[in-house]
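Comment thread on ticket #2218

A.B. wrote:
> Attaching the input chain for the structure job we discussed in standup.
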Amino acid sequence: MSFSRLLIVGLGNIGTTFGWALSEEGVDTTHVVREGKGSLFEQGIKLNVLDLREEDPTPRLHLYVPKVVEEVSPEDGYDLVMIPTKHYQLAVALRDYRDRVGLDTSFLIFCANWEGPQVVDEILPRARYTWGYSATNGGPSGDVLCMNLRKDYRIGKIEGSPKPLLQSVIELFGRAGLEPDLKEDMLGWLLAHHALNAGLIGAALYAGGQQELTSDPEALQLMAGGIHEALAVVKARGVDVSIFPDIAPFLELSDEGIIALIKDSFFKSPAAQRAIKSGHFKASPEEMKSFYLDVLHTGEEMGIPMPSLEAMKARIEGEA
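C.D. wrote:
> Ran it. Output below, let me know if you need it in another format.
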């Protein structure tokens, strides 16, 4: 199995960045957009890219003129559809494009997941999809999309999803110098990462922003407690969080240790500062809030104590 024609749903931050990176290396890449929106991209999209694939990365300006369509059909011959939507838009996108491409077309789902795979399995058999997640980040700044293009991306094993499909996606991304951060249990990792985001994003919303979080002792303490609580929700759902090297430290660290780790890894680097100034957090506040609320509501339903996450709620919901 190999892929020659890639269809990316939309021109959001992640879809645009990966579309640019792959098309630059000769991958036949097309973006499908809503009816009447195609003409908006005829003059191209301005990108400010910090390309972390380079040894000494420096932000550079690019103009990406994507190949855009508003309609697709099985006759178009796309063999892979990449869906980098918001997680709560995934089911709608899958139902739509499942019926607009060929029956043999594979899908790369490239977004978060908290509900579990059931909603996807009702739409597509696992023989037709695999799941990845971006490590790249950024967002719009005026009319320019500022992105930190990391060398790595997340992808991994899913029971029932064929290994050749996974390997073909890895091979395709490898053409652009992108390397897989392979997860032993991709669906479990998505839950754990969602939980980590719930504590971190919830605290940033509580503090009034990512930069504000770094100097707000109360919000930082709630963040650390919230991460522990959110991961407890994931463990209660049957996921062995300890198998993920990027998540496991949060199980072992004290609150003070978590605060120090977050400050060092999420806020201090030049790439992190770029993401704070023009990142997805500012551009999509409702999506950010959904990470927090997803975990909070599930924990409440399961009867798991979550004093830190619950303490954030009134201010995040605008009730305080």
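A.B. wrote:
> Thanks. Noting for the ticket: The chain has two domains: 5-183, 188-316.
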